[in-house]
Design goal:
It is built from eleven helices and 13 strands. It has 379 residues and is of the alpha/beta class.
Length: 379
């Protein structure tokens, strides 16, 4: 005889109520997540608009409408749950990164693996690309110094200073400084080379300024707490605190007008760049453009530099919920950003290298170095 199990209607109601109360927190988790993402996105936008050095100048030169559309469109997607915070912040940062200033970025694999490659060459996919420090003869007349980083570790500042001295005592007439793959660090790296490359006073003057906000100044105050004997930093902070001006000159330096020394060596010099040459490495390229006669010193490469040459002194900001970190520069060159129509980041080479990419770039004398060394021998 078959038995039929009949569930009491009262039991069904209890079970449904149990499911409702059990499921309710799960259903609420999605709106909470969206709220956190929205809060993070708004935090990044507000921090950028209030503190990023270049933001006011970008808005002044006709990009306000495009920016507002970008910001509004991304926020709507986040609010509707159609876009996560990682993609939204990367999309937002990339707009600044590829159009104006590659010092503005999100430090997240999604940014580097998906967005960075849209506007920058992925050399590692093309050949054996792992540049290392080199100081040696490229040929009988030419000395090569390859500097893959300006961070002061590999190579150290002392190593570079010794490399410059090695060139001066080598008997070589010409010099190649190779900064392919150098994404920056400190301008201190170039101090030993300045006096031997410069051959005329600077014609145009920079106006390197700091965006004087509470958030930006707090970063420098924290630095001073770790460097209590840094007199320059004390003076700089005091100047910023004593004014309500939004932009404060980093330092007043009239040395550009002084008579500059001229070194007999090198007879000819070259700087080799690539699309990974950034920040402090771009400082060397700017120096060549500003202070060196192109008949003596020129920049060689296939592509322009990275595009972090207009700004500096970047600081990181952590989004409160996702803990994503994005970076923006606090200082920059005001005359540069006041130029109408200046959009594309990076510095183009003086001489374009029409060769294929080298088969290997490590600690070797590669095909590009050999080609440039031959160019330096021509009149």
């Amino acid at each position: 005889m078959r038995h039929h199990n009949h569930t009491c209607p009262k039991v069904i109601i209890i079970l449904l109520l149990m499911f409702f109360y059990t499921a309710k927190p799960c259903l609420a988790a999605v709106p909470d997540s969206i709220s956190n993402h929205l809060s993070d996105f708004d935090y990044m936008v507000q921090t950028t608009e209030k503190n990023y050095f270049a933001f006011p100048f970008i808005m002044q030169h006709g990009f306000g409408k495009e920016y507002k559309q970008l910001k509004s469109g991304l926020r709507k997607k986040v609010k509707k749950g159609k876009m996560g915070i990682e993609q939204a912040t990367c999309e937002y940062a990339y707009w600044f990164f590829h159009k104006f200033d590659a010092h503005f970025y999100v430090d997240h694999p999604l940014f580097w693996d998906t967005y960075y490659v849209k506007s920058h060459t992925n050399y590692k996919s093309l050949f054996n690309y792992a540049p290392k420090a080199v100081s040696c003869k490229a040929d009988i007349e030419t000395w090569l110094i390859r500097v893959p980083s300006c961070e002061g570790k590999a190579p150290t500042f002392e190593w570079f200073s010794k490399a410059v001295q090695a060139f001066l005592s080598s008997g070589c007439k010409n010099l190649i400084i190779d900064v392919r793959g150098n994404t920056g660090g400190s301008d201190t790296m170039w101090e030993p080379i300045g006096n031997i490359l410069v051959d005329h006073a600077k014609i145009t003057h920079d106006s390197i300024c700091f965006r004087n906000t509470d958030t930006n100044l707090a970063f420098y105050r924290r630095q001073l707490s770790d460097q209590t004997d840094n007199e320059w930093l004390k003076s700089f902070i005091a100047r910023c605190e004593s004014t309500s001006d939004e932009f404060v000159k980093v330092e007043d330096d009239d040395s550009d007008d002084e008579e500059l020394p001229h070194s007999e060596l090198p007879l000819k010099a070259a700087v080799i760049i690539d699309n990974r040459t950034a920040s402090s490495a771009e400082t060397l390229v700017r120096f060549v453009n500003d202070y060196c006669n192109p008949q003596r010193t020129r920049v060689y490469g296939k592509e322009s530099t990275w595009g972090a040459n207009k700004t500096g002194n970047e600081i990181g900001s952590v989004l409160p919920n996702s803990k994503l970190m994005f970076y923006y520069p606090t200082c920059g060159n005001i005359p540069f950003f006041q130029q109408d129509g200046q959009v594309v980041p990076g510095i183009a080479p003086d001489v374009k290298i029409e060769l294929p990419y080298p088969s290997m770039l490590t600690d070797n004398v590669d095909e590009w170095v050999i080609w440039v060394a031959k160019q330096l021998k021509t009149k």
